[in-house]
Design a protein that fits this description.
The complex is a heterodimer of chains A (91) and B (187). In chain A, 16% of the residues are buried. Chain A has one domain: Folate-binding fold (2-Layer Sandwich), CATH 3.30.2270.10. Chain A has 91 residues and is mainly beta. Chain A contains 1 helix and 6 strands. Chain A has a 4-stranded antiparallel sheet, with no helix packed on it. In chain A, strands 1-2 form a two-stranded antiparallel sheet. Chain B has 2 domains: 86 residues, 2-Layer Sandwich (Gyrase A, domain 2), CATH 3.30.1360.120; 81 residues, 2-Layer Sandwich (Alpha-Beta Plaits). In chain B, the strands form 2 sheets. In chain B, strands 1-2-8-11-10-9 form a 6-stranded antiparallel sheet, with helices on one face. Chains A and B meet through strand 2 of A and strand 9 of B. The complex binds zinc ion. The site of zinc ion (ZN) has 7 residues of chain A, from loops.
């Protein structure tokens, strides 16, 4: 159990949220020009690293808004939370 | 109002707590975000929607609760006519907001059951089934939160100190009420 600071509602228990996978994956501009391998890469392949990872989260049982999070997957330490549509501040 | 059997049959009294359903109450869900949407609502219902998170605002007839940066719920402060499912304000807002594509107005009167809790033990009860921290909430008149109670989505509105209105989807209301009955009897 840990606390997540929703950018709209404030600090809430993790059980109110749903994790939405890796963040900042861009849809290819011209999917028709990709071969199967490249399309699969976009569709299925995720970094899933042990360590600091960019993720999307949804405040599913609160304001129902999506936002981005920078989280250390090894110890659940949340480094940063920022709104949807904002560029990742690191990298 | 639709013709349904209320899932909560009677007013219940426990130590430090009284629980009853308030029915029928008009409830409207409003969605929209631009300036024109906000000003049109303000003009037509004579109150401003709360923009600060987790708060509500009230006029003589209505209370509006913040649900999200672009979502609110308006309820009537008084019970409505049981035989009638038409609300003047819904018609008015529908024509000014939905028809003009400024936002969306949805009648959720029958979707949500409104349960009124009164007494100094409200938050002792809620804390046993909620991950939400009520320490600040219970001191702040008009505070609103959406959270989980017993894994069920609820909207909790602190109408005034020691008076809470709880909104729950109808299909969950009977289950929630039976839990309240059980948990409150052991407060
Ligand atoms: Zn939220």
């Amino acid at each position: 159990m840990f606390i997540i600071n929703c950018p709209f509602c404030g600090e809430r228990d993790q059980s109110e949220f749903k994790a939405g996978g890796e963040a900042h994956i861009e849809r290819p501009k011209q999917p028709t020009e990709l071969n199967d391998e490249e399309w699969a890469e976009y569709l299925f392949m995720r970094k899933n690293i042990k360590g600091i990872q960019f993720e999307r989260w949804n405040h599913a049982h609160g304001c129902r808004k999506w936002f981005n999070m920078l989280r250390d997957t090894s110890n659940d330490e949340i480094k940063l939370i920022y709104k949807m549509g904002e560029k990742s501040p690191i990298e | 109002m639709l013709n349904y059997q209320s899932s909560i049959k009677e007013e219940k009294t426990y130590s430090g707590l009284i629980v009853k359903e308030v029915v029928p109450v008009m409830k409207l869900n409003l969605r929209g975000k631009n300036r024109e949407f906000l000003s049109t609502i303000g003009k037509n219902i004579n109150m401003t929607l709360p923009l600060e998170a987790n708060t509500s605002s009230s006029s003589d007839n209505y209370t509006s609760m913040w649900l999200s940066p672009d979502e609110w719920m308006i309820i009537s402060n008084y019970t409505a006519d049981k035989e009638n499912n038409n609300y003047q304000i819904e018609k008015l807002l529908f024509s000014k907001i939905s028809k003009t594509n400024l936002g969306a107005v949805t009648d959720v009167s029958d979707q949500f059951v409104m349960i009124n809790l009164k007494g100094e033990k409200i938050f002792d009860l809620l804390s046993t089934g909620c991950p939400f921290n009520f320490n600040e909430f219970k001191k702040k008149n008009g505070a609103v939160t959406q959270t989980l109670l017993l894994q069920i989505d609820v909207i909790i509105h602190l109408k005034e100190i020691n008076t809470v209105n709880l909104f729950v989807r109808r299909s969950f209301s009977e289950h929630l009420m039976s839990w309240i009955d059980d948990a409150a009897s052991r407060l």
